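Reviewers of the previous submission asked for a worked example of the structure-prediction workflow described in the proposal, so we include one complete record here. The input consisted solely of the amino acid sequence. No template or homolog information was supplied to the procedure at any stage.
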Amino acid sequence: MWFGGWESVLRILVHGTIAYVALVFLLRVSGKRTLSKMNAFDFVITIALGSAFATLLISDRVPLVEGIVALGTLIILQWIVSSLYVRSSRFESVVKGTPNVLYWKGEYLDDVLRRVRITHEEVQASMRDRNITRHERAAAVLETDGTITVIEIPPGDEVHALEGVDRPVADANGR
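From that input alone, the workflow returned the following structure tokens.
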């Protein structure tokens, strides 16, 4: 069917406008955390919000108020979960996961790379992106949002940025 009639077009325009205003309002009320850089949980909520919003616009079986309640419910659940993991590191590690060291002082951690399904080439690309030339003084970390962070390790190995990240234990050569 190419055209369902002007009534359905008008319903989409009205519902879409009202739902859009409601979604923007709900997102603003829920705080910046809802729109911040995403971890896996945030990604799932974003997809669910998009799906609920699309269903609200397209489906004539979903009343406007019910669609807005669905959007609000997802945002409230995201707010509750993020509030809990800010207060509990244990809850945070369950929801958000923990960063993984992929590369440490010239050596790829192949067991970790296999487990998280990252290749040497992806780590190397991140090093090039960060202009890291002394690989023996570098660390690469897979962050909980899926990005790879590469840092230079200063002499003395004081790396405050790696606090809370499991690191390889130094061997007898200090590596």
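Residues 6-95 form one domain. We consider this example representative of the routine output the project will generate in years two and three.
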